[in-house]
Design goal:
265 residues; alpha+beta; Alpha-Beta Plaits; 2 domains; ten-stranded mixed β-sheet; 6 helices; 10 strands; globular
Length: 265
């Protein structure tokens, strides 16, 4: 029977979700723990990929498990998993739904703090940008849903079949002090490092190093810049994953705390 596992993880110790030889990754840790508890090798398929050091406050993977268990699998898994990975729900599914291919929308949040604060380290990205031009950043963000080819915001576009993404929402928030920013974006799919590249461009616009017209030029002309510098990874969270048949609220209380007290720019 196929099961969907609803999880969350803090990515600071990991080289991303996907298995790669010689590095610690979230997928391999979960497969190892699940196989240990079930006492049979159990491969898993994730709803997507996250880069090294990137977090997920909501993530799903599926696994096919032949034999039912007579113990609290959720408890046992969480007991042996490291503290930076948690399983929230284990959901039996009818048929063979796919955690990656059936997903209709993913949402990411990117957090920035503009003053050095050790308590944000590892949870938000530090950019010492005083008084960025939020109005220009907002104007650039408003362009994102108007275009559907994000070739200019992909690190290696020639390695994939296509660069079409349908952005349904893109919003900039700030806290009351103006010292923290949150960029939220939702789409049917995302390209490699796409969100971090967009945030990097938005920061350039906020500093006056790029105009909104130049930002739109890249979108419209699908021109890949010669130099692409993505924003830091530790501020990025995969924050919501939605299926036609499954739309669960985010379970992490910390994710809720990170999303409180913001005002739309």
């Amino acid at each position: 029977m196929r099961y969907f596992f609803h999880i969350g993880y803090h990515g600071a110790r990991y080289s991303g979700w996907q298995k790669h030889p010689g590095v610690i990754n979230v997928q391999e840790v979960l497969e190892s723990c699940l196989s240990q508890v079930l006492k049979v090798t159990t491969p898993i398929t994730g709803c997507g990929r996250t880069d090294a050091l990137v977090h997920a406050s909501q993530f799903f993977f599926h696994a096919d498990i032949d034999n039912e268990w007579e113990y609290d699998l959720l408890f046992r898994l969480n007991k042996i998993l490291p503290d930076d990975i948690a399983v929230f729900d284990i959901i039996p599914m009818q048929g063979l739904p796919h955690a990656r291919f059936d997903c209709i929308q993913r949402s990411y949040n990117y957090y920035i703090h503009t003053y050095k604060d050790p308590f944000f380290s590892g949870f938000s990205s530090f950019y010492a940008e005083k008084n960025p031009d939020l109005n220009k950043m907002k104007a650039a963000i408003a362009l994102l849903p108007l275009y559907d080819d994000y070739r200019a915001f992909c690190k290696m576009p020639d390695r994939i079949d296509h660069t079409i993404c349908h952005v349904s929402n893109a919003t900039l928030y700030t806290d009351k002090s103006g010292n923290r920013l949150r960029f939220e974006i939702s789409a049917n799919r995302f390209l490699s490092k796409m969100v971090r590249i967009i945030v990097g461009r938005l920061l350039e616009i906020g500093k006056g190093e790029m105009s909104v017209d130049e930002f739109e030029h890249y979108l419209a002309e699908k021109e890949t810049p010669k130099i692409i510098i993505p924003a830091y990874p530790q501020g990025l969270y995969l924050s919501k994953v939605t299926y036609p048949y499954l739309d669960l609220p985010v379970r992490s209380a910390f994710a809720g705390m990170m999303s409180e007290g913001w005002e739309k720019v």
